[in-house]
User: Fold these one by one.
Assistant:
Number 1:
Amino acid sequence: MAHIEAGIFKGFIDVDSLLQQQNSLVESKFVKSKLKDTSSLIFLESSKLKCYQVLNPNTKNASLKLTQTVEKKNNVNDNGVNNTFTLIEHEIKFKIRKDFYFAGKLYYLPTINNKIPNNNKEFNVKDILGNSCNSMTNILCFHGWYDNANSLLPLIPYLFYLQQKNDNRERKQIQYLITLDLPGCGNSSHYNHAYNLDGYLIDIFLLQFAILQWKENCILLTHSLGGLICTTYISLFGNYSKSNICISLDSFGYMSEDVKRVEKYKTGILMSINGFENKPFELKDMIEKRCKELSISSESAIILLQRSIVKCGDEEKGKAEIYFDEKDINENGLYNWKHDPYQRIMPASNLFLERDILTLLSQHADKLYFVHPAQSSQSMKQGILEERKNLFKESHIIKMKDCVGHHFHMEYPREVACCILEKIVWNLSTFFDSKL
């Protein structure tokens, strides 16, 4: 494991090299040691109780409106107020290596349910270590390129609210959900080497198996780049987990190399060079930029920006997020991006030929649910999609006819949450072995 600890996965690799690294990673002493207590590698930065008003609670179109976010205290209680819903959120960090941390958010319901603590009990990070019981599942979330952990933020409260509203002990229940900033994004550490596929795979593997020790009843909920990485991840390491399942939102493995992709590689290098200047922007310009680049609403852009930017002069304060209102948007204050400009470069090793992608996906292919909108900029040719689908032991393609756009999970969170719960999570048997 020394070579992994040292972070020597620099430069470019080929598929054969990656498959060799897969074997050495699984057999590494660090993972095999099965540490009994890795809580010393987990750090809680803050704890909050998020309170939502439930609009139209008795209809199919019930929606949630965030009304209050308060610092979590041991005696916080919603007192059973009608048409309200509460969710506990912890800002959290995981020390993967000496020079790298995964940052993200941990969510759970403030109710007693197996190992889940209630509002009157102080949270202990040891509670999240190890597998959930068979009636429950844990979820790890990974966002898309140049986004951050907040990409899944609109979706998360609906997953828990709909679960609580439709409580059924015979169905799988979400125990803990962790949404993470990928390396170089949000509050996670920046890599000191290229953002290659092998670096992502190694750090996710160490987080899931060596630190959290979630070897059973774990779902990977991913979007875009997160899906590219994790579809490969569950294929390579599907035989190491009893029940790894990937729900990939509008992403089914790496895109095949073509002329346009090579041109993007060149463009990314040039953009990164310009990014080193770290030119500050006004907030309204940043919002406009994200809306245009991602084809999303200003509300979704603001959610992403809260974790992506820092006000000039506040860099040393180390705030996980900043919150701003209409007044801040119209002010002339300047902000910098927090993400690593090197991330704009698409490494040459990520420009796979289709035969290489098929080789990676065919290793120990496990269960995959590919959920995509009716229209998206990330569409894949039907023939390629079917060929990749057939590599998995069990795979399902779910088309959401009423949703459009690559970030459809942010624009249609209730609809996507219903799909994930009703068509996937609640249809999983105790041993994750049933089909839709």
Number 2:
Amino acid sequence: MSVNVALGNISISVSVPQEHVRDGQDLADKFAVQRTEEAVDELHAALLFSQFCFTNGSKETAQAVFSSVDTAFGLASQGIHAVVGGRGYDEGQARQVLKSFYSLQPQSASTLQKSALFSPSDTAKLVAVFGGNPGATSYLDEASKMVEIYGPLVSGFVAEMSDFLDSKSRDSRVCNAYPKGLAINEWIGDPGCVPDGEYLSSIPVSIPLVGLVQLMQLMVLYKTLGVSPGELARRFSVATGHSQGITSAVVLSTLTDDEESFVSGSKKALGLWMLIGALPQLAYPYFRLIERGSDGHSKNADVQPTPMVSVRGLA
């Protein structure tokens, strides 16, 4: 038996067991009236309807609806990312569909599909490589997008790490490097609270926050694969990184099956990144370079110098 669902110009039929048809159709009728947003396509409409059912209907009917959607679109067999990748979405559309899917994860009993790349193999060997600091403020946009899409998976972790960072930024030994704190969770939730670009790109701030983004990526990876942190770590033969990325590689290499190992390792890494960024800057403070223009008057340089460590005599 089917439930007929309409959202804007999109109409779909969702097959459910007989005992859920009446409740399902009642929910579909309410959905058509109460939801007015545009859906990307049939898959997006089906996920939005599933979300509506979990919010407004019985758990049994909602699970029956989602199980049907899961099967009809191959989400369980192929994995949501593979399905989204094959549907020709642009970035914004893909983000909407993924957000709708992962908003259902705390309620639905769907089985996450493990990637073949991360399945045990005697021939394929995986290497994890973590980058260094890009010297830009784009990390905040990346963190915001991950929270938007994978909120149920990472929002609690981000909030805890944000509290940790902001608390440590008030430590008397480093507080002068963090006059605007490190409350990244607040910045993600309210763009009006975001500090200026110069503060975000400063080394004491950008090093720990770029590191946090890498840790968020690790968490998204093991949670979307449906494995423990330790299972993910054991699948990699090598973990390495450039510059501050080495610390992320160390975190990965020390993970166990207990998620607390990820939280604990993340706090150690974030604390280290804060010290790496703050202490050199406090020892070698900011200054503004003055250039002389062709007319003899002083003018501020477009690009300000920053410290760089020089290590000699190791060879």
Number 3:
Amino acid sequence: MTDACLERGWELLTHNWEQGELLTSFAHQPEKERDIILRSLDQFEKYTGRKSKGWLSSSLRGTMQTADILAEYGCKFYCDIMNDDQPYLLKTPNGPIVSVPYSNEINDFTFITRKNFTTDQFRDALIEELDVLYAEGAKTGRIMNVGLHPHVSGRAHRVRALREFIEHAKSLPGVWWGTREEIAEWRCKVSKPQTILIVGGGVAGMTASAALAQQGFKVTLLESAPQFGEIGAGLTLTPNAMKGLDFIGICEEAAAVAVEPTRQRIQHWQDGRTLVALDRSTQREKYGAPYITVHRADLHGVMTSAAQRAGVEMIAGAQVVSSEGTTVTLADGRQFSADVLVGADGVKSVIRQRFGDDAPHFTGHVAWRCLVPVTPEIQDLSDFPGIIIGPGAMMNRYNVRGSKVMNFVFFARQEGWNQEGWTTPADPEELQAIYGHWCEDAQRLLKAAFAQPLFKWAINARKP
């Protein structure tokens, strides 16, 4: 059978060692997955006389490391990722591999066996899919993959659909009947090192710039402030967020400038009793990453160092006022361009205006923040951080900077004021009016907060 396929010039790809041995069964056993892939590739070479250039997993069940392993063994394309109708490069530690997607939707098994399409319905669906992609292809190429099985669409009473579809496709000028290997080769030839322009040098922009630069992209990061840095107070990063930082190699750096609480609690606003106690001591063991509380400036410093190490070009004092295509214009008239433009410029994003002129809306919540030194008077509240909750309001506290400082955040509903920002001074009387009748622990938090600079801001958001 292999010889017959080769005589006809048909493209063959590796499709697993056996159909029922799904790679996802070994998602956490990379060496077993590697063994299956290597045995399959060796068998392919044995019977075809050439190394395999591509891979399609059984049931399209590849894992997070499948592309890495395939690239290591010289494969040029991978078919499991069905999220696009264009070929694109997947970057791996072993060099790029091209995603040339298969399709479960444009597939005779789906149409005929699962959806019970008639022969005419199957033909019409294929033609409509092609016509739409053909029209889009006038600007940039599209792939139409048709999944076919001889025992389904090859039946005598159904094969007419394929013949009529192929006749239609041949009537369209410029349609390329390429193999997957040819498509992958073309994509590699036209590929060029991409330049990426990121607007906004906060936590999101800095993280994105470091991650992309580490993958080989040339990244320029624009920040409107006169220098790179982070204002504000504290924030919490859960283990899933820390795994994101681990991807760019700074999980432990971030943890080193943060606090890993061993416990937290939720208290009642009237008497301070503990409603819920949370054990945080096993976060690393349970989730493979820590749970931290950290000052924004400390975290941002770690991220900035990572971006600098990765070679990100960082430009401060660059206030973007408009964008067109992938070019931005600054307030001083300078322009910057790249292959890709990323907006990470906050809730009042200039880049987002490209997708509509909707303004941020006030959520009805106001927050007051301050940083408080941990003193003997509030040491017990530092030792057992958490939240005091009450009607329409809450008081949050957690440690930063070696547990020598606590970050206080007070949330409440408040209409009539919606100024967004980090540095608006707040009147302690506002907090006294809201929380003055709360429990003793709340009063100690208020007393400590009133001795420090206190800031407030309205919490704005956008519709998805």
